[in-house]
Amino acid sequence: MTLNGSGGDEFTWSPEEGLSRADIPDPVTTVTDSVAYVLFTRDVTSGCSDRDTVILTVHPDRGISAGQDTTIAAGQSIVLTATGGPFDSYLWQPSDGLDNPALQSPTASVTAEITYRVTGTTEFGCEESDSMNIFLAAGLKIYSGFTPNGDGHNDFWDIDDIIYYPNASVKVFDRWGRVVFSSVGYADNQRWDGKYKGKELPIGTYYYIIELKDGSEPYKGPVTIVR
Prior knowledge:
Layout: E1 10-14, E2 35-42, E3 49-56, E4 70-72, E5 77-79, E6 89-93, E7 107-109, E8 114-121, E9 127-136, E10 141-142, E11 145-146, E12 159-160, E13 169-173, E14 179-184, E15 195-196, E16 199-200, E17 204-211, E18 219-225
Parallel strand pairs: 4-9, 11-18
Antiparallel strand pairs: 1-2, 2-3, 5-7, 6-8, 8-9, 10-12, 13-14, 13-17, 15-16, 17-18
């Protein structure tokens, strides 16, 4: 910051540490700790002198965080949360997709990848900022087969990135059209293990329909059980 001294023709600031110059009325100071600067002034004509003190108080960082980068499906909503502080006010930028950019935890509805930056302001007027990225899921990677033989490898039918679609409908049919597996969402504990009503299904090809419930066309195709 810039100090603003006045009241004389000659100026001397003390201490000199952190000052761009100590013999001008308005030096620039860079400080890391609180400090008291004393300004000595002298009027050349009268020979009179005076002094005054200005105290700079340095407040420590409060550590604002915008949160971790995250991936969601296009059109989904996510709650952003700024942590650290406390801060008197918050401002998220840009405001695109936000219900209220002045909240500590606004809700974002995004249709494109975006970087949000939050700035927190303390009661002293100090500002701290941090940013986070929101990426969009690129679609599903659906594996065409699995080997549910209990050896701990490839025992479940995996669908990459379906975790970003918690409302997805997953159905698997046998060749006669019977539904042998159905779930809403497909978390790790919901994955198909090649069984129907607790019993192992025979090896062969089955057929799936996956609806993401986001307006896109369903995924359809075969999945093979191999033992």
